[in-house]
Amino acid sequence: MSTKNEDLSSSQTVSAHSDHIMTVSTTSQRPPPPEKPEAIRTRFKVIAAFWAVIIFLGFPIWWKTTSIYRASLPIPDMIDWADGKTCRPVFPLEIRVETPFLPEPEAQHLVRTTQHTLDDLNEFSAHHLRLKLSNDNGDDPLQEPADTALTVRLLLQEDLVNPKSELQHDTTQLDVYYTPSQVPPLSSVNPPLSAYIAGELQQLFTEEKAIIAQILSDSPATGAAATSQSPSAMLSSISPQLAESIAKRLRRSMKYADTYHLAFSLFTPGAEPSSWDIQAAVHEYIVPLLQAFSPISNFTVDTQVQLYATFAPTAPAPEYDEEHAAWTLKPEDLSAFINAAEWPLSPSIGPGPTINFILYVPEAAQSPLVVKDSLATSWVVPQWGGVFLLNPANSTQLRHLSREDLQTAFLTFSHQLLTLLGAPATPAALPFRLQTLTRIRAASLLLSASSTMGSLARLTESLPSIPIPATVATSVATTLSHLTSACEHLRRGRFQAALADARVAETAAERSFFEKSMVGQMYFPDEHKVAVYLPLLGPIGVPLIVGLLKEVKKAIALRKARQVS
Amino acid sequence: MGVDRRKAAVFGGAFVLRLLLLVLFPSLPDLLTGRVEVSTPVTSFKRLQEGLFLYTRNVSPYDGGVFHQAPLLLPIFSLLPSSQGFPLPTVVLYSLIDLLNANALITISESGWAVSGRSYSAIRKHIRWDGVTIAACFLFNPFTIATCLGRSTAVFTSAGILHAISSAVTGKAFNSMLALGFASYLSIYPALLFMPLMLLCYDQRAQTAQTFPSTTVFALQHLAVFLLSIAGLLGVSALLIGDFRAFLSATYGFQLLVPDLTPNVGLWWYFFIEIFDSFREFFLGVFWLHLASYMGGLTIRLRRQPLFVLSSLLGIFAVFKPYPSISDASLYFALLPLYRHLFPLMRYTFFAVSALLYATLLGPAFYHLWIYAGSGNANFFYAITLVWSLGLSILLADTIFAALRDEWEYDNPDVRGKDVKQV
């Protein structure tokens, strides 16, 4: 290519300079005839024509096509977010206290003393509980009210030695029963009822507090702050048991995603059962749960039936256990239960991870099939999904699985789904766990989006040659504004709204960081540009520049000659 | 009458030869249509068939992303019977276009503009071939025959260019601009020929009318005709194709931005496969400017021989345009015999001709090794296209040198017939 360019461009120089570069080489060495003025003019015009193309078309094209568009990013703001300077996530949980059987002053006194005890108990300032009487209608009517994390109802009950509490399973409500004698007098400083309520509340929120402390301490932004109230100090104070259970939960649960795909699969080694009332079962047992989860993530549901699904040939076969009259699988072999090579379990149904739920119906000859020792029929595959072994009630093979047949399986699946989505194990009430999960997710998304901003800022600063498209600047602006409002919502205790903002921020942050057009030139140092330009443009450029220089030299000589004469 | 009989014999012979090839080797047209040397993405007959199929079913022909040619070809071809069942009518049409081109060449040759212009006349103008010989050179050139049987739509562009020139040398400036507009409409690059063609028309007018029309007015008038003809053709296309924007991006956008890097005999495809993506736009600009920059320099330097500028530019296009094929080379070779008087002044004819023959023979072999046998790689074929381009470039440089030498001798009568050397 370059040789040819050179060839043609040199032919151009021939045409440009032909008048003076053709010399007659006769024996008499006669000098070539002098150039005519019009030939000089023509030559000047030819060189001017080439340079006109270069200057008026070439340079604009060069400028336009190789300039790197770098939209301006608010780098200091992004770094501040990543370093945790802009926002310290706090979790003021509002707890409403209903006292239907207490007069106002006593109720207020009880709340005040309980709050005092709570504050004394709490060693983690970011996460604290704020008690509020239910008839106390907020400090500022213009402000959106904070989410109520828990409602404490003080109920009167005779014949009780000690106060007693009970957490409602379907609402976020804690019922505390007390006898009239336990109502603290207005003069008491530290009444036992207050201490009891404070202890109960503290107990309820221990796991959540530990998880949030864990999240905050894992993040470089908030974990570094070395105060006595820092998350790491909090972490060191929790029991090893709780720490272990939190670590286990983190290992099992899926990474957070905006959308999860649930895939329910029916596998059977034979031809039957070949149908199941999956739609009814999903509607009955899964959809309500998904609706409850909808502020946290979106879900899609897929189902499939696979007949003649055999185990992998390498998987150990189930063994018959005489004692329990059942076929057993060893716990250590459960990882080989799923025949990943042959069972069609797509890991990517769409953008976002897939959670697989497998309903396995063993053939009649191998039924019932259980896990050895524990005799369990279901297990969770960490960060992947869950398995349920459905043993027909009598060992006749089922043709069709009705909604009732599926009930246990789907209740198990819904439980497994909660685990896989990272809901804390305690307490038992589902609404309470969902609220906790909302706060956990809001915290982790806020931190993750902030640290993405920091990475993006450092990346764009360290690589001055990568382009920054306008879409990235827009995404960054979206992220920062939603982070700000998420932080504000957190501070005011509106966790649902904070999570919604944090989700938007996280999505926008990921989009800006993984923008495709940015990475194209990431590893393209300036020295490479010489290697790109020189071999191609050199052969064209040299004759043009030499021609220009000659013309300029001649013009200067001519001017000098004129000045002399 | 004798000359006419010769002409009839040449034309008849060429026509019969094409039909005979079709009858003797019925698979030849399809074989040639599939060759990368003959068919490029912008001239391929296969792609035209695809566009035609969509067009006759009332679907936008550009929908499949395969067809990139001007839409006016579609109604013309939809009149012909299907080339699959009846290959004869299509080949007859292409042969007739070849004969028309040959006729235009005879007109150009007989006008004598190749040897003498308004203010210049070649020293060796007695050494020349007559029109029928030049037509025969064109019609029996294997490249022309391959293009004709390969039914590349580049022949329509060639017809436009040749008729633009033949109208210009016979004083029909208006027709000339219309024909150039047609050629530019089909494939953009002929628009670069506007300057020298306009100068040719101007010289012709000045020579015959003996009055000197104002240069600016003349240029503007012809530019207007040229642009209006293109606008008219685009208007008709817009009537044919509903989505005008899609049509523009599928045809001209495609030719300008070169997204299809199917191998061809040119230099662009390999380069743009290899270049870093971020430099793609820049080098597209460089390559197009490189192609365009010759126009100004050559036109100014060889102002007295506008027809020679036209021929040389066609040669340059055959080397440096984005999708060249042998039909572009055949157009250049068609005009080259007009300069029989320059042949004695050329120095590297042997080298150029052997390079071209070498590339012609080895090109298909290396392509086969790369694509079918799998025992070669892309570099084999690219090396051959380099040799091909080198051969053409040497031929070009040599003829330009010879023309300049001729001009120089005309200006300096005392040094005629002396040896020269280039320093």
TrEMBL record, chain A:
The transmembrane residues are 46-63, 530-549
Annotated InterPro entries: PtdIno-glycan_biosynth_class_S
Please provide one cellular component term from the Gene Ontology annotations of this protein: GPI-anchor transamidase complex
Tell me the first and last residues of the signal peptide.
none
Q: Does the keyword Glycoprotein apply?
A: yes
Chain positions covered by the region annotation Disordered: 1-37
Localization of this protein: Endoplasmic reticulum membrane
- Where is it mostly found? endoplasmic reticulum
Query: Where are the coiled-coil regions?
Result: none
This protein's membrane topology, according to the annotation, is:
Multi-pass membrane protein
**Pathway per the UniProt entry:** Glycolipid biosynthesis; glycosylphosphatidylinositol-anchor biosynthesis
Keywords of the record = Endoplasmic reticulum, Glycoprotein, GPI-anchor biosynthesis, Membrane, Transmembrane, Transmembrane helix
User: PANTHER family given for it?
Assistant: GPI TRANSAMIDASE COMPONENT PIG-S (PTHR21072)
What name has this protein been given in UniProt? Answer: Putative GPI transamidase component PIG-S
Q: What species is given as this protein's source? A: Aspergillus saccharolyticus JOP 1030-1
Taxonomic classification? Eukaryota, Fungi, Dikarya, Ascomycota, Pezizomycotina
TrEMBL record, chain B:
Say if the entry is tagged with keyword Cell division.
Answer: no
Identify its membrane topology class: Multi-pass membrane protein
Q: Which residues cross the membrane?
A: 9-28, 182-202, 223-248, 268-295, 307-325, 345-367, 379-404
* This protein's pathway: Glycolipid biosynthesis; glycosylphosphatidylinositol-anchor biosynthesis
Q: Which family does it belong to?
A: Belongs to the PIGU family.
Q: Name one GO biological process term.
A: GPI anchor biosynthetic process
Question: Sorted alphabetically, which keywords does the UniProt record give?
Answer: Endoplasmic reticulum, GPI-anchor biosynthesis, Membrane, Transmembrane, Transmembrane helix
Which Gene Ontology cellular-component terms appear in the entry?
GPI-anchor transamidase complex
Location in or out of the cell: Endoplasmic reticulum membrane
Domain of life (superkingdom) = Eukaryota
Q: What is this protein called?
A: PIG-U-domain-containing protein
Checking InterPro entries in the record gives: PIG-U
Which Pfam families has this protein been placed in?
PIG-U (PF06728)
Print the organism lineage. Eukaryota, Fungi, Dikarya, Ascomycota, Pezizomycotina
